[in-house]
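ok, trying the design again with the full structure, not the truncated one.
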């Protein structure tokens, strides 16, 4: 406050104003991108963005009024321009009436907006496809239901959705509380052990987005994210059919070692290994963006690093280190996984 007051009286003391030309574009650059609630790609996120803009403008008016009064009072100290009665009126109107009116108007607007942020719960739209998402330490189990003659299937750490169609998620937690949030599309909602929460979203444009876990859930909470790919209906149906049919066995050395070293006891590669269901499903793993639920780019080198010592990359990960497996065999397993298209 003092700094702003000094700015008004002596420009040479004002460092903030000098830094504005470089600071503003940098700050605004943080408002776009694939993990930004301020760059909406879904109906719910657009409503939240709308609310944010209105709140910032409303809050800005209050801020300007308070700063104006502050500056006025700083100058008034020298000139004693206010009578006691006038000062009382100023406090009543400026300090009580103005904030109450603005804040009440913002509250009314926020309450009015609520049904459009949760249209599915308001039963204003038909019941959408229900995708099950379960938060686990520290990854995402995702189950798609059978739809239009395509069987249901499980996948992990990547969500694919059709553009322009409402979908709903039934949200659960396997161990501790996690939180489901796709900033670009909408949300968020907690995932609580022993409870099922339902959240519905409507993606409005295609693209690839990032969804972080939004509730502290342990040492690798930061390394728990999933990709969201919003696609045209036709591409989405192709993807579903491919997922449902699984991978083809190839009889490679890596595929054999995957079972031999016990990877298949936790991870399924549908079509080539029996269903395990303990760790993340790895069917069509090579098509995903990341290794370790949003932790590393999906490259052969990173798969090797992860197999050798997951905890070095993701502290607290349930998967044990496989550093006793000869390097050549880890390379073969990584090649197998990197080829699962
Ligand atoms: Cu899961 Cu934070």
């Amino acid at each position: 406050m003092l700094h702003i007051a000094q700015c008004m009286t002596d420009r040479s003391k004002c460092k903030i104003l000098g830094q504005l030309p470089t600071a503003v574009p940098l700050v605004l650059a943080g408002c776009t991108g694939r993990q930004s609630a301020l760059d909406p790609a879904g109906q719910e996120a657009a409503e939240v963005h709308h609310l944010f803009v209105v709140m910032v403008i409303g809050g800005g008016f209050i801020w300007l009024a308070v700063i104006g009064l502050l500056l006025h009072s700083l100058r008034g100290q020298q000139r004693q321009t206010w009578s006691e009665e006038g000062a009382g009126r100023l406090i009543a109107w400026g300090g009580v009436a103005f904030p109450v009116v603005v804040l009440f108007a913002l509250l009314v607007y926020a309450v009015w907006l609520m049904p459009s942020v949760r249209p599915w719960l308001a039963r204003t739209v038909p019941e959408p496809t229900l995708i099950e998402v379960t938060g686990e330490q520290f990854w995402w189990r995702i189950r798609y239901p059978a739809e239009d003659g395509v069987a249901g299937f499980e996948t992990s750490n990547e969500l694919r959705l059709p553009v322009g169609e409402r979908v709903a998620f039934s949200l659960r937690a396997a161990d501790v509380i996690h939180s489901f949030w796709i900033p670009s599309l909408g949300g968020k909602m907690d995932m609580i052990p022993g409870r099922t929460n339902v959240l519905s979203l409507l993606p409005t444009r295609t693209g690839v987005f990032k969804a972080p876990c939004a509730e502290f859930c342990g040492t690798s909470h930061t390394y728990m994210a999933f990709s969201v790919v919003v696609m045209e209906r036709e591409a989405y149906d192709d993807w579903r059919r491919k997922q449902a049919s699984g991978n083809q066995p190839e009889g490679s050395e890596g595929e054999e070692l995957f079972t031999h070293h016990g990877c298949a006891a936790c991870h399924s590669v549908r079509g080539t290994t029996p269903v395990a269901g303990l760790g993340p499903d790895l069917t069509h793993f090579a098509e995903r963006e990341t290794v370790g639920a949003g932790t590393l780019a999906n490259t052969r080198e990173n798969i090797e690093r992860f197999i050798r010592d997951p905890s070095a990359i993701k502290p607290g990960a349930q998967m044990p280190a496989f550093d006793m497996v000869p390097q050549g065999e880890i390379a073969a397993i990584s090649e197998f996984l990197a080829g699962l298209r």
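Keeping the full-length input from now on. Residues 135, 138, 178, 213, 215-217, 221, 224 surround dinuclear copper ion (CB under 6 Å).
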